[in-house]
Amino acid sequence: MNKLIALVASALLLVAVGAAQRLRPDADRVYQPLSSTGAIGQDVRTTPYTVRVERAETGRELVLTGFLDKKEKRATKGVWVVVHLTATATQERVQLGTVELQALNGTRYAATDRFSTLDSADLDAGIPRRGSIAFELPPDAVKGAILRITKARYTTIHRLNAALGPGVEVALGLSGAAVPTVTIAQEDS
């Protein structure tokens, strides 16, 4: 009788261990940032900053305005997605960090590095900064794209750049239809 109880207990223990293994989240879920979500026109607050997406637009060509209203046209083989937003540091000087658009299929696209935009600008505590961030996406990735901002970059030496820090997610509500041109002002870093 004792052997039977031991066998049943062992079998139940094995089933419990197997179930625990299946229910354990994968590494991507364990280490992803805790995100605050919001909508266009809504303040999304996190510890390092508050972000408000004003609007998002798409275009086949981008007109970049810079110093003294100098205008440059930038082409892409895909579609430009420009996100206009306001960001404010909450406690100390910080940069937005990793800024991406996530397509419906899960693919992530980084902000363009072909010119300077708000993602590389310093944000000072309590001072709102308006600007734009541009992305180049394939046309089929635009519809349903979500803006993701994670891994704030602190500019003070005593603060570590947190890989597990808070993030921002905003669904952009883009339809996928692109206008001929979209305009963006280049940031003065």
From TrEMBL:
Signal peptide: 1-19
Keyword Signal: yes
Alphabetically ordered keywords of this record: Signal
Name the UniProt record assigns to this protein: DUF4352 domain-containing protein
